[in-house]
Design brief:
The complex is a heterodimer. Chain A is of the alpha/beta class. Chain A has eight helices and eleven strands. Chain A has two domains: 183 residues, Rossmann fold, CATH 3.40.50.300; 68 residues, no CATH class. The model of chain A has no long low-confidence stretch (mean pLDDT 84). Chain B starts with a helix and ends with a helix. The relative contact order of chain B is 0.18. Classes of the chains: A alpha/beta, B mainly alpha.
């Protein structure tokens, strides 16, 4: 799973486990991520991808295992802790506050205040316009509650929020599931741009076609365990599909604890 | 990521009626207008009914409207706090009992305890009593909030328990006795001729309010121009400023036209050794102090909800609790603070209610929770969470109190009063549901 060079990984997840009432949602899973790299975490619905990533983003508390950020052990117990380590997450459900406007959402939890300690709406909106202008130049509806926006617009709000605060590790859970082809293309371009900035990205998807071309490596999960890891240039889509469906590791992949030995 | 609604917006403007155009230009909420209309209907309706059925329309008199304003104060203060609670999808059934407990505690402090040390009528008695009352309310509320947020007990259950616990505790505090009279200065906080600011004071308050209104409009316009947001048409600004000032000054005239009762004037004449006979002196009530407290609470709570980080979090949590938590908001701590504010406001209402009665009784505030919740909901606070305004809740309290007062004036049975209030609440929420469905 490790790369050959000596760069410290941005994130290293080791032997992470979590169980919900006897069901091992994540079972001794390990994965790492380097700066400027996109790692796709693939697997069926219920394979444990989202759960794994929610542990990293602080939404769930792990039962065992360690998380290293920049080689140092990170203590992540809630979403605020994760943000301290520069870990930003874009959730499948988008997780925006529906009844406040775009600027309020971008700064939710990290509001800009005036000298009087009150909300500096003007400053926040100005910055929101700048970021949104980069992501989605057509976006103009800054004054409306987010519930009135389209799926793509909500998505751009969610992405803008993640990159606004100089994230170093970005987690995108099914980033294109709710989007049309054109919007998906835009998200693809955005990921390339973020990569160039040296941001490490975890992409979570159950659909290999969504992410195969965007990712440098894939990590495949099945029943809470890691089936294996592979560089996308070493394997074909069909081989990765085999990993997802059967748990069968192709020769070019590094098998993990969940790899099937029946073949 | 195309933006289609932007273009359809322009087409919509052309075929809308004059009234909608008016609402759009002045940016007045249709709901607010609806509530004011309901208020006018209730007021005029009760007045005319009284005139026809009893031969005397008592509702639209300075005396009744002044009393109405005082009666609204206690419920109105608590309703502003209930907005925060309901916006975050909780409920607080215990406010009436907290009020009772705080009132009883304050009465004991100022009547039984403090005179022992400071002497009867000491000027420090009332501020200490009020501070203790607010603090006790705050602690009880924070405790409820802790149970809700950190132990995960539903707010409905926590505060239902609180409803019984604090009522019982209020009884135990003074073994069920009624404590009266309270400190003389404290009693002024409840209104009455001595608890009002008089004619000149009312004009000053009115002038400040008008100046604040004009400043708000002007400031809003400069801000919008600076950031190139669409401006209201000038006539709309004029209309808002003019109507607002007219309402403020009209209210001042109204409260100033309600004179002190002759008995009180005689006392006043005797106390000040005046030569003029009492019959020739016209002393205005002016604004009652509890009404000023309500206005101050309304302004402070509006500021809190719209201009501070805390207020932003309250509405974000109400709109999508999961998203708020994932955004890194400490939702539990915010919940504790919300309940603590509610408790503090219940303590403040306890000051108003017990001062008004000049005594603390064991059943003070009974059923207040229902009126408070009704006021918030009638004022447009949505049980689905995330939506609600402070001014709406205060207007809602005024609507509830108007109904109550009106029915008393025309002599309805207490039984019928309860039935009407209950039905109005259900109908108001039904209308609200329809309104929201159409607004989508």
């Amino acid at each position: 799973m490790s790369k050959d060079n000596k760069v410290t990984p941005l994130v290293e997840i080791k032997d992470l486990s979590i169980a919900f009432g006897g069901i091992k949602a994540v079972d001794h899973a390990s994965v790492d991520l380097y700066p400027g790299e996109v790692v796709a975490i693939l697997g069926h619905n219920g394979a444990g991808k989202s759960t794994l990533i929610k542990i990293l983003s602080g939404a769930y508390k792990r039962d065992s295992g360690t998380i290293l950020v920049d080689g140092k052990e990170a203590d992540i117990n809630n979403p605020r802790d994760a943000k301290k380590y520069g870990i930003e997450t874009i959730y499948q459900t988008l997780a925006v506050a529906d009844n406040v406007d775009a600027a309020a959402n971008l700064f939710l939890g990290r509001e800009v205040l005036t000298n009087w300690g009150t909300l500096d709406d003007v400053a926040m909106e100005a910055q929101a316009r700048k970021v949104m202008g980069r992501l989605n130049p057509n976006f103009q509806r800054f004054k409306e509650p987010v519930s009135k926006l389209s799926g793509g617009q909500r998505q751009s709000v969610a992405i803008a929020r993640a990159i606004l605060f100089n994230a170093r590790i970005l987690i995108m859970d099914e980033p294109t599931a709710a989007l049309g082809p054109q919007e998906t293309e835009q998200v693809g371009q955005l990921i390339h741009r973020l990569k160039e900035d040296g941001i490490g990205i975890f992409l979570i998807s159950h659909d290999i076609h969504d992410v195969f071309d965007l990712a440098d490596r894939v990590a495949v999960m099945k029943n809470g365990q890691m089936v294996g890891y592979a560089r996308t240039k070493d394997v074909t889509k069909d081989e990765v599909l085999g990993m997802i469906i059967l748990g069968k590791c192709p020769p070019a992949a590094t098998p993990g604890p969940g790899a099937s030995t029946d073949f | 990521m195309s933006d289609t609604t932007q273009t359809t917006g322009a087409a919509k403007v052309e075929n809308e009626g004059a009234f909608t155009r008016f609402l759009r230009a002045t940016e007045i909420d249709a709901r607010l207008l609806g509530m004011i209309a309901a208020l006018v209907v209730i007021w005029v309706g009760f007045h005319l009914y009284g005139k026809i059925a009893n031969g005397y329309g008592a509702f639209l008199t300075a005396r009744n409207l002044w009393n109405l304003s005082v009666q609204t104060a206690s419920i109105g203060v608590m309703a502003t706090g209930m907005v925060l609670i309901i916006v975050t999808r909780h409920i607080d059934l215990s406010v009436g009992s907290i009020l009772g407990f705080c009132a009883m505690s304050m009465a004991i402090i100022q009547v039984w305890i403090l005179p022992e040390f400071l002497g009867l009528g000491h000027p420090l008695i009332w501020p200490i009593a009020v501070l203790c009352g607010l603090l006790i309310g705050c602690l009880i509320g924070a405790f409820h909030g802790f149970l809700v947020a950190y132990l995960g007990i539903p707010a409905f259950i926590v505060t239902l328990g609180g409803l019984l616990v604090w009522r019982g505790a209020a009884f135990l505090l003074a073994r069920g006795e009624t404590i009266s009279p309270v400190d003389a200065t404290f009693a002024k906080l409840g209104g009455g001729p001595y608890g009002s600011i008089g004619s000149l004071g009312s004009w000053i308050v009115g002038a400040i309010a008008c100046a604040a209104l004009v400043w708000l409009l002007f400031n809003g316009r400069t801000q919008r121009r600076r950031f190139k947001f669409p401006l209201r048409p000038m006539w709309a600004e004029m209309f808002l400023g003019g109507t607002g000032s007219a309402i403020i000054l009209g209210t001042v005239l109204l409260v100033n036209s309600y004179p002190w009762p002759i008995g009180i004037v005689r006392q006043y004449v005797a106390a000040n050794n005046l030569q003029t006979p009492a019959e020739e002196i016209f002393k205005s009530h002016g604004f009652a102090i509890p009404v000023l407290i309500l206005i101050a609470v309304g302004v402070a709570m509006t500021f809190l909800t719209t201009r501070t980080r805390f207020g932003r979090y309250v509405f974000a949590i109400g709109g999508n609790p999961e998203a708020a938590e994932l955004a890194g908001i400490n939702t539990r701590w915010v919940t504790v603070k919300i309940f603590a504010i509610m408790g503090t406001l219940a303590g403040l209402s306890a000051v108003i209610s017990s001062a008004r009665l000049n005594s603390a009784t064991n059943n003070l505030g009974t059923l207040d929770e229902l009126y408070v919740i009704a006021a918030a909901v009638i004022g447009g606070t949505s049980f689905a969470g995330g939506i609600g305004t402070i001014y709406g809740a205060i207007l809602g309290a005024l609507v509830m109190q108007s109904l109550q007062t009106g029915m008393v004036l025309i002599g309805f049975d207490a039984a019928i009063q309860q039935m009407v209030v209950g039905s109005v609440l259900v109908v108001a929420v039904w209308i609200d549901t329809i309104y929201r469905r159409r607004a989508k």
